[in-house]
Amino acid sequence: MQKYPWKTVAFSTGFVMSTGDAISQKFVERNEKFDCKRYVRYWAFGVIIALVFAPVFPPFFLGVMGLMKGDSFSIIKQKIQKDYLDILTSCWSVWPGVQFVNFLLVPISHRVLFNNTIALGWDTYLAWKADASKQKSTNTLVRSKSTDTLVRSKPPDTLVRSLETTVASLPVWGDTPTNQTSMFVALSP
Questions:
Q1: Closest-CA residue to 13 (of 110, 119, 91, 123)
Q2: Residues contacting 2, CB < 8 A, separation 6+
Q3: 8 Å CB contact between 63 and 76
């Protein structure tokens, strides 16, 4: 992940998508013949969506949120320049592992709940990134007549601890709470 983030995310997303298809073919649909072309289609879609969607999401999200707040284009541009890589690498650090666990260990009937629980923590992180300039203890907005400048800060430790606690309390079938927390810590940015 550190050395080849694009390849790692793309191929792991492809792997999760194609594994989900293989499980569906074998255990849900109970197909007698495995459809290799279908499997490759799912793998390719996972690779493509990881390479296309994830890099486009942070500027889209920050831009739309900035416009909705009434931020100037210069503030939005600086916000994107400042937070783009943080959001992208956080996305890549969290979601491939979450989806891997979701498809591998979580029963179908609980997958949406599991995903939405993690998404709550993710959305909390995104809200913090999008609106940090309004909080005293995070980013500082420096204004002058000619430019607006945002000063960078790190996410509060309480957010990371909150996400670890949330993940540790989730019922992951066949695993212990200790392993769940260490799985999350390994995935966290």
A1: 91
A2: none
A3: yes
